[in-house]
Amino acid sequence: MLLHPSARFDPRRDTASWLAEQSLASAAAPLGADADIFLESLETLHTVNIEKNGNIIYTWKDIWRNTSIALYDPNSNANEHLYSFEKDLHVISCSVNNEKTLLAVSFLQSTKEVRADMLFQPVSKFLTLLIEICPINNVKVLKAVDSRIRVQFLYPVAEACAFPESCLLLISEDKYVEKIDIRVVEEGHTAVIENSSHLPKEKIADDFIWIQWDTLEQRLYYIVPKGSSGILNCVQFYPDKSFTLILEVPLEIYLTDTELKPVNVECDYYQEQETEPQSLNLQVFTSEKGCMCICHCIAPVNPGEVTYSVFFLHKGVSKTYTVALERMDCLKVKDLLFFNLDYYVAVFLPGHFLHLVNTQYPDLMCCNFFLTGFFGAEGDSYVLLDNKAVVYTLLFSNAECSGEDAKINGLYESAIISPLKSVVLDLSTGRTFTLEINKQALLQFLWNSKLDSHRLATLHCLLLHVGSTTDLETEIIKWISENISTCFTFDPIQEFIIASLYWKMCPEAINLDTLLPYTSLVCWDELIPGIEYTTHITSLPVPKVQNCKGFWGKLISNLECVKYAESHLRFNSKVLWREWEKLHLNKRTEGKGIKTYMTTVFEYAKKVLSNFNTWSTEERLVPLFQDEDDQQKLLTGLMAVQLKDHLMRHLRSVSKKKIEGIAVDYVSKLLDLMYRIMENVWKKYNLDSWIFSLEQRGTSNEILVFHFMCQMLYAASGMCLPLPPGFHTRHAELGVCCLPLYTLLLYIDQGVLHLTETCVLKLLKEVDNTEKKEKLKLGILTRLPKATGSKVGQLPNYPVGATTVVQDYIKFVFEKLGNKWPSMSIVDTSSAQIDFLPLNYLVTILTEVDHQGQVASVEQGTVNVRLVEHVALKHTTMLLGL
Asked: 783: how many CB neighbours lie within 10 A of its CB?
């Protein structure tokens, strides 16, 4: 199951026994009644509200059809009776204040009573009451009208205090919203409304055509028509009982005359069953990251398609999606449902598809899940609750996940809403479910997916939403090791490294999430089967209040990033590439301050490597050498310096010391992730006891590990990322063991293998002096970097060190003879014979050159020994066929 539903509230599980006890204890209970009789009341149970603290308010009718109201606390699993009416009422809306002293109820009076009373005097169809319930005391009529009223207490504080002032919202179908301030005082042991005959009222909004209440964030959204479009307004309520119109956004949506249908301010199942005019299918969603989206279903033009738009207000763009349906059922616009999952907006069309639209990064389509589903297919799975199969589940089929992947089973016949973030309520049964993205299902989907878009969406969801933990990273590395060559539009190693670092580092400082890269991709141009979309630039909203904290402060920060080109704010590898080329290619060898700059770079490299070595206290599985080549140290330090400079330009409120720590930590964790990849691959192929040896050819496992390390090197080079110390040494050792000589030298020439001093010295020390191995040595020596070659040539204890000896000997002979070439009788060639093939050829070639008289002249007293050596070695390679 992609979305795992856990039962937050199930009437049969959570209320059955309590309701039976309540009914049996009632004075009106029939003589000899048992619990089974009163379980019939479960059929009349309906959830009518979910408060900010999670408490669920529900109603039920007893055997006498009396209507009762109760509260279920999911934290304590306790039920509490609030109030009872000795009549059959249709409760429209109900809310209790945080202190549980006041209850607001809006209901439709029974038709029979209304008709009977109208014989004597006019009677309102709907009543709204304010009831004192601590203990049950006075009842005050707030509204007696012929239109529905929705009631909602504000929950501006987390903790209750003794009898504070309560605020109640009244939302009318007549298109106005009022706030009533109610002060409760204590009289003896009773909570009583103070001055109940004169409750202060304040109008919040009027003349709107759509309204939505956000319970968790205590916000009221409503749309006021303006021409053929409208303006979205947002009112924020604060803990001090005040409120502010904080946002006005012009909508680029064509609005026709629609019937008002409030969102998230009622749970009226009966009204869902009525035939009602077309209503506006639109919702506003926000997330903790400062994302604000408007989801709008558009009336379909083609009966075989569904079209909806998502306005990403925090990005200044909107996307319109058109989905081709695989079955032509009779659908209505209201059948398209939107759920807020914080990081995603779930778009669900019962029986057809489930889309998870990434709200934080809408620019790349590959960050979204576009999954289709069918009902009744084999492989359906269910969540078991109280030994009964609940069909209200969101799941993957067990079939190959290439299209028929996701479905919400059974819910297409029920009226469902999402009153809270990640919560779904089935109005017909009263069941409430909490939706969570299933990590195990995501991993299974990752393994089964064949499309790169699915794989990328899954990686982003796992690493950026579920969270990059050690166990999860290990599972992803296993997948990468098996599938790295099957991904054609992205590099999984790059995505894993960048996304994991983003998750690990963003909590370190405010706004760091806008400065670090979250993906290695610049764009995504691949088509997604069955999905067409268009992108439009929209005007950015301008909040009416600045210097905010919390969500509004984060939203303002996101808007500022868009204004100043967000792509330029993120740390870019291109900048690092340019600086690396200057230093790596020795283009910055001169100039004022270059020595100081290089010293700083290597100091940061030392800090990073020191920090990297402290990540794991256990002995590392893959043996690494700390005397890595200077080029890798240079890149390591350079990345830390460049990242530090980038962060200091934008995090002006953060101290320099903390920024330096963030930069060092970032590069250290990067090296650690690279090492973790190596470690897991070595475990997989049983190389934990691997010892470098040239006595036998590389095994199949060693060859697989070598090629995987080539992929790691390619991924790192593509984004100019440093590699762990000793990576190149181990990689070259595996290459020597696994590759034929020609291929090995070609890999060196192409830059796939990097020769380090440690590797070369180890090779020359452990390889014997047979002719076959001499070819290997010669090929390695002719390709050594200048710095490494100089160090190796100065070590006479190794065979290659004899090169210097022979050079000195030849130079001595030439200088002694002046401009005369030595003859065979003068030069004793046997004295120069040593057990190193290239040097033997060197002496032979010099002798032949003198004997044939091919050298016309040599400057007096001087000989270009380097040139002579170069010519000799070239002849050697020709003779050996290299």
From this structure: 15
CA pair distance 10, 383, nearest whole angstrom: 13
What is the number of structural domains in the chain?
Answer: 3
* Beta strands, E only, 45-164: 46-50, 56-61, 67-73, 78-85, 90-96, 102-108, 126-133, 136-145, 149-153
The mean predicted confidence, pLDDT, of the chain is 79
Q: Is residue 447 part of a domain?
A: yes
Q: Does residue 599 sit in the same domain as residue 744?
A: yes
Tokens in use for 210?
Answer: 């759509």
Between the two ends of the chain, the Cα-to-Cα distance in Å is: 59
Q: Are residues 824 and 742 in the same domain?
A: no
- Order the strands of the 90-96 sheet from edge to edge: 90-96, 102-108, 126-133, 136-145
Closest CA to 449 of 371, 382, 360, 520: 371
146 in a structural domain? no
Judge if 535 and 603 occupy the same domain: no
Q: What is the DSSP letter of 467?
A: I
Q: If you search the block for the tokens 């390679």, which residue do you land on?
A: 877
Of 228-232, 580-584, 594-598, 612-616, where does mean pLDDT reach its minimum?
A: 612-616
**Residue 212: inside a domain:** no
Closest to 333 measured CA to CA, from 372, 293, 306, 356: 306
Q: In angstroms, rounded to a whole number, what is the distance separating the alpha carbons of residues 261 and 347? A: 19
| CA–CA separation, 84 and 91 (whole Å) | 12
CB contact at 8 A, 588 and 594: yes
d(C-alpha 672, C-alpha 169), whole Å: 54
Residues near 240 by beta carbon (within 8 Å), at least 6 away in sequence: 156
**Residue 285 reports pLDDT greater than 90:** yes
Residue that the structure tokens 């017909």 belong to? 428
**In 10 A of CB 834, how many CB atoms?**
15
- Establish if 265 belongs to a structural domain: no
**3-class state of residue 695 by DSSP:** coil
Span 223-280, pLDDT tens digits: 998 888 899 999 999 888 889 999 999 998 887 656 666 777 666 655 555 545 456 8
At residue 825, φ and ψ (nearest 5 deg) are -75, -25
Closest CA to 339 of 408, 267, 417: 417
Whether 755 and 630 map to the same domain: the answer is yes
Same domain? 738 vs 806 = no
Report pTM: 0.82
Quick one: 700 and 614 in the same domain?
yes
Has residue 163 got a pLDDT over 80? no
Lowest mean pLDDT among 208-222, 411-425, 511-525: 411-425
Domain hosting residue 379, numbered range: 281-489+527-539
Strands (E), 459-611: 531-537
Instruction: Using pLDDT thresholds of 50, 70 and 90, give the confidence band for residue 111.
Output: low
Query: Which residue blocks in 685-795 are alpha helix, DSSP H?
Result: 700-718, 727-738, 741-749, 757-766, 771-781, 786-793
690 with 601, same domain: the answer is yes
Q: How confident is the model at residue 777 (pLDDT cuts 50, 70, 90)?
A: confident
**C-alpha span between 288 and 360 (Å, rounded):** 10
List Cα–Cα distances, 376 to 135, 428, 445, in angstroms: 51, 22, 20
| Residues 452, 324 share a domain | yes
Q: Where is 560: in which H helix or E strand? A: helix 550-563
Q: Are 26 and 66 in contact (CB under 8 A)?
A: no
Separation of alpha carbons 782 and 760, rounded Å: 12
